[in-house]
Design a protein that fits this description.
six-stranded antiparallel β-sheet, six-stranded mixed β-sheet, alpha+beta, 14 helices, single chain
Length: 516
């Protein structure tokens, strides 16, 4: 009996340690996967916004040049000067050309390419007669290029031709510089595809120009949506990917990380957990061996309970085990301590899964879980939608690192201006939501105005002063929370339309604008 009891007790202890290890590793794996997916989604969206800004800026410069050359289209010398000016303005284009209505190049830069007199390789820009960004194609010289163009019309609306610039995908230019600036680490990487599934940018330059086959990740990116997914790519590798579309060009941005990299990080974490558990396990086994001759029925009960330390009711179950001597009391105490520590670890991991890693504010998951409880217990919930004005300029002018610091600074100011009962959330790139339980619209509008003034008056490092626009709406018991979020977004949008740096708040039956 003694051998049977000792064997059973030791087996139960090992099972407890293994179960603890399994629970912690699986929770950590879920956290790593969700963190990688969220990080890749945010990264892809940030790069897509930046790239969209670069391409839109290129189209604006070509639009201006088209107006300049429309008045002097017959003067080839002035056309050549304008082409040279566009080329030297920045490093957006590798070459610039002007064609007549028939597609013949009448001016170009640099002159060494000797393009004058040649015909435009693609007639699509001539036929469509509107500003456009082409898909990638292979030039006569064998280079993969993208052609950005804008039509030229005279004062009477007659089509004269076009002005355009080429972006060579395998040479240095502003597009390449932007992408190279945002190279990722730890196995993650970013690439760009056009709507023909051809690779426009890839850290491996050998991939440029390659047409990708069936791939769920690429399909999602070309759908012009933003999101993340765990899928197998066209090469059969399991990926954790984030994606976003570029509206100005119908291109797609994909930021992805091989699952094997996450698994390697998990293995390192699991090894650390094992090193922490093994000494405790050895000590526990020695204690069991020492006390085994005097432990009978209570040991069996404790061992059974120890197999399920991860369930919430485990503490109560172990506390209910009767003990009649010091040894069994100590064992029960040790299991209760292990249960408490494990539940705290699980709780900590769950909190990390509900926290925005950049700002420390609640994420969408935490917001939805909190709202589920509040909607059943609160009579009113005020919603303040907040958006940083012209945040894209911060990223464009100072880089995404400074942009991240700006987001953290705004989050810190929000915490200073909130109550302990309020819930502060980051729901998008520069988008935030404040939920104020048991608050009126007037009180929420006052809080929003104080927050607006605080942010506007605070000088941030590097960026200086920034402003925010806010929309305030109120949910009342029995109403639709989705409609309230939509109303807050609409009021935020109205604040931006009315000049930004202001609060627009909803009141019963009307919408009024707070003084800004």
């Amino acid at each position: 009996m003694r051998i049977v009891l000792l064997t059973f007790a030791m087996f139960s202890a090992v099972a407890t340690l293994a179960n603890t290890f399994w629970v912690m590793v699986n929770i950590q794996k879920q956290e790593l996967v969700e963190s990688a997916l969220d990080g890749n989604r945010a990264y892809a969206q940030r790069i897509a916004d930046a790239l969209d800004g670069v391409l839109s800026s290129d189209l604006d410069r070509l639009k201006y040049s088209s107006k300049v050359v429309s008045t002097t289209f017959s003067n080839r010398h002035l056309l050549a000067a304008e082409a040279q000016r566009l080329l030297e303005q920045d490093n957006s284009f590798n070459s610039v050309l002007v064609t007549d209505a028939a597609g013949t190049i009448v001016a170009s830069a640099p002159e060494k390419l000797q393009l004058n007199g040649k015909s435009l390789q693609s007639r699509e820009p001539l036929e469509r007669r509107r500003a456009m960004i082409s898909n990638a194609f292979q030039s006569i010289t064998g280079n993969w290029v993208v052609f950005v163009s804008h039509p030229v019309f005279d004062a009477d609306g007659q089509y004269l031709g076009l002005v355009g610039g080429t972006i060579r995908l395998e040479q240095q230019n502003r597009l390449q510089a932007l992408m190279d600036l945002n190279r990722r680490q730890n196995g993650a990487y970013v690439f760009v595809v056009d709507n023909q599934r051809r690779v426009l940018y890839h850290p491996d330059t050998q991939q440029i120009g390659r047409v990708l086959g069936p791939d769920r990740i690429v399909d999602a990116a070309l759908g012009q949506a933003s999101g993340s997914l765990r899928a197998v790519d066209g090469d059969g590798n399991e990926m954790l990917a984030g994606y976003a579309g570029i509206p100005s060009s119908d291109w797609g941005i994909i930021s992805q990380q091989p699952m094997v990299v996450v698994q390697e990080a998990l293995n390192v974490s699991a090894l650390k957990v094992a090193k922490g558990i093994v000494p405790l396990g050895v000590l526990g086994l020695l204690l069991i061996w020492w006390a085994g001759t005097r432990i009978s029925r209570p040991l069996s009960q404790l061992a059974d309970s120890a197999k399920r330390l991860d369930v919430p009711e485990s503490y109560e179950r172990i506390s209910a085990v009767p003990v009649s001597y010091e040894e069994s009391w100590q064992l029960r105490r040790a299991l209760l301590l292990s249960t408490t520590l494990l539940q705290e670890k699980i709780g900590k991991l769950n909190r990390q899964a509900q926290c925005d890693p950049l700002t420390g504010l609640a994420n969408r998951r935490a917001m939805q879980e909190t709202l589920t409880n509040w909607l059943a217990t609160k009579k009113t919930i005020a919603v303040i939608a907040l958006d940083i004005d012209h945040f894209k300029r911060v990223n464009d002018n100072f880089g995404h690192g400074v942009g991240d610091e700006t987001l953290r600074a705004v989050a810190g100011l929000m915490k200073q201006n909130s109550r302990p009962t309020d819930l502060l959330c980051r729901v998008g790139g520069e988008e935030f939501v404040l939920l104020l339980p048991e608050s009126s619209v007037a009180n929420a509008a006052d809080i929003a105005e104080r927050l607006r003034l605080l942010i506007a008056s605070t000088a941030l490092e590097t960026v200086g002063h920034i402003t925010v626009s806010l929309g305030v709406a109120l949910w009342q018991s029995g109403g639709s929370m989705d409609e309230v979020f939509q109303k807050a977004d609409q009021l935020l949008y109205r604040a931006k339309q009315q000049g930004r740096n202001q609060v627009v708040a909803e009141r019963p039956g009307t919408v009024v604008k707070a003084v800004s």
